[in-house]
Structures are given as structure tokens and as C-alpha cells.
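Q: My labmate handed me this sequence with no annotations at all. I'd like to see what the chain might look like in three dimensions before we decide whether it's worth expressing. Could you predict it?
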Amino acid sequence: MSRKKIPPLDNALESVKNYIMVNHLKEGDRLPSERDMCEMWEISRSALRSAVRYLATMHVLESRQGSGTYMAPERPISVTGTVETYGFSDNVRKSGHTPNSMVISQKICSGNAHVARKLTIDRSCNVLQLMRLRYVDGLPCMIETSYVNEALCPGIESHDFSKESLFDVMRNEYGFSLTHGTDTLSITHLDSQEADLLDMYEGDAVFFQSGINFGRDKEPLEYYKSVIRPDRYTFVSLCGRPMSLERTFW
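A: Here is what I predict for the chain of 250 residues:
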């Protein structure tokens, strides 16, 4: 009985993955040249290139023009299903990256019916509407819009949220601790303004996250909604017993 032949792409994928594991490659490490890899594993350039492209879509590898193929940087991780509530900056720092923010708009306005319902306030109540472009290591990652009941935090609009954390201001100046929250994750498509801000194309698919963060007395403190580049941010949901998080490539 003849042995089943392994397809060229599968052979190339296994060769690259084994090389990464055996050599314990980490973020930023460079793989051998295309010629060397083809000679090492006796595979065609077309099969190798297809394997590299596939692993790039999985955020394992990245190709740098004129430089070679490298291990891709790990993306910040947002963990759902935990007791703790962390903001964007905390999640990014915990993943070993540097967060930054640019304020797109910051104003006090009357909340619409949807926002009022989320914050359990009257529609006539004023809210802080804070829209920020969030960066990871200098690259645009997320457009986040937060809504806070102004009656709970008078004067909050005077803060510079390009430098200050909303969570920190609410805790340190107004005495509120965000203890837990609920969120929903889905897929949406970018409009032209969002695409320009995130350096993507109009109509591209992205994560859409929305949720409410609560204080100790279960009062809604913040309602937020975000559109997030899926190639620069990862969501992990923990189920059952606590576990450690490790990077998973395949």
C-alpha cells in the first residue's frame, strides 16, 4: 500500500512551525532566509511563501520588506470572564506594550435614549462623552467612546484624557472604584471616518465591543463602545477554573 503524499503547503507549514518550536523563537526573532529554508526542508518557494502568508494572517510571523521574516509581536490581551476590571491601558501594559491615546472629542452633552438606558439615568441628564483613538506601541488600535454621568463626576471634562486614565480619575478624584462589568463582543464594518483613524479601508471587518462598568454599589459608572483592529488586539474568554494564559499560535 502506497504512503499518502503530504501536500506541499502542509509540509511547509509543519517545517516552519517545528523550526519555531525547536529553536524557541520569540517576538522579533528572525527566521532564516527564504533560500535557506527551502534548501533545509527541500520545499518549493511557492509552498514556503504560502505557509509564511498563512502564518502572517495568524499573527505568528510578519514579513518585512527587504529584511526578511520575523516572529510577530504579541498582541495585547483582553481577558473576559475574570473578577477584575481593567482598562485599555492596564491591559496593554500587562502584555508588555506601550499605550497612548489621542482625544478625538470630549464634551458634556445630554445623553440619548440608548446611553441613558445603559447608565440608568433620565434622558435629560448630562453625560461626559469622551471619544479617543487608542494606540499600541504607536500604532492605531482602537476607537473608544465612553459615557459617564456628569452628576457623579462634576468637572470631569476638565481633565486631559490624552494623558490621564479615566479609571484613575474616577477612582482618585471622585472615589469610585470600578469593580465589575459586562461586555458584548461582535463584528462590525468600518465607516470612512473610522477607517481613516485606524489606517484601514472602509468596509473592513473589525471587533465591536460595548459594555457597562459598575461600582461597588452596582451603580453603572461608565458605558463604552469600541471598534478594534483584530490584527492588533486579542480577546480571551476564561471558562471554568482559573488558568494561566500562554500564547497559542496554532
